[in-house]
Specification:
The structure holds two protein chains of two kinds. In chain A, 0% of the residues lie in helices and 52% in strands. By secondary structure, chain A is mostly beta strands. The model of chain B has no long low-confidence stretch (mean pLDDT 94). Classes of the chains: A mainly beta, B mainly beta. The interface between A and B is medium-sized, with 23 and 25 residues.
Chain lengths: 112, 114
């Protein structure tokens, strides 16, 4: 119940494409869903986050879509660039615990 | 710039030789976390501090210890490193436990065990 399932494990797109990364959860107590971006040799960095009372959130080229009834959420990267090549982790948290539950990660490669 | 700093960035130790990794933060955050991340895996939480209150994850081996002498600093001690402890160790902070979804990570320390 504490797991967050993430897919695909890896993704290759051409520049300008729209990669989509999907996550699913079981625990309905989760109340915050952040996405973290990690470049090789660096720590993860918060990219964008959403609460379950919102169905979509956009920040620049990054959009989270959230489907509360299906217990799924996804990250879309519009007009992807080679600089977006990184590993992306979805995560979930609840106010009752003081930690993040990470998905397994998706390695994205964007080719010119 | 406010940040999370980890030293050293790369650490090589011998099998069984104790090693200490350090983390400092200028964000004045109340919570500090230590994660272990192995290649192509998600970060795995080892433990965290809320102020001076220590919270150990149930599956963190006894070989791993931590100290937080003040708000700014936190240390990870590995008492007898094994080959399986080779990994990236990440320190992170959050303002307080209710904001655990927004964590600020340091660049990590890559530990090699020979």
């Amino acid at each position: 119940q504490q797991q967050v399932k993430q897919s695909p494990q890896s993704l290759i797109v051409q520049k300008g494409g729209i990669p989509i990364i999907n996550c699913a959860y079981e625990n309905t107590a989760f109340d915050y869903f952040p996405w973290y971006q990690q470049f090789p040799g660096k720590g993860p960095a918060l990219l964008i986050a959403i609460r379950p009372d919102v169905s979509e959130k956009k920040e620049g080229r990054f959009t989270i879509s959230f489907n509360k009834s299906a217990k799924q959420f996804s990250l879309h990267i519009m007009d992807s660039q080679p600089g977006d090549s990184a590993t992306y982790f979805c995560a979930a948290s609840t106010r009752s615990t003081d930690k993040l539950i990470f998905g397994t990660g998706t390695r994205l490669q964007v080719f010119p | 710039d406010a940040m999370v700093i980890q030293n050293p960035r790369y650490q090589v130790t011998q099998f069984g030789k104790p090693v200490t990794l350090s983390c400092s933060q200028t964000l004045n955050h109340n919570v500090m976390y230590w994660y272990q991340q192995k290649s192509s895996q998600a970060p795995k939480l080892l433990f965290h501090y809320y102020d001076k209150d220590f919270n150990n994850e149930a599956d963190t081996p006894d070989n791993f210890q931590s100290r937080r002498p003040n708000t700014s600093f936190c240390f990870l001690d590995i008492r007898s490193p094994g080959l399986g402890d080779a990994a990236m160790y990440l320190c992170a902070t959050s303002r307080d436990p209710t904001e655990q979804y927004e964590q600020y990570f340091g660049p990590g320390t890559r530990l090699t065990v020979t």
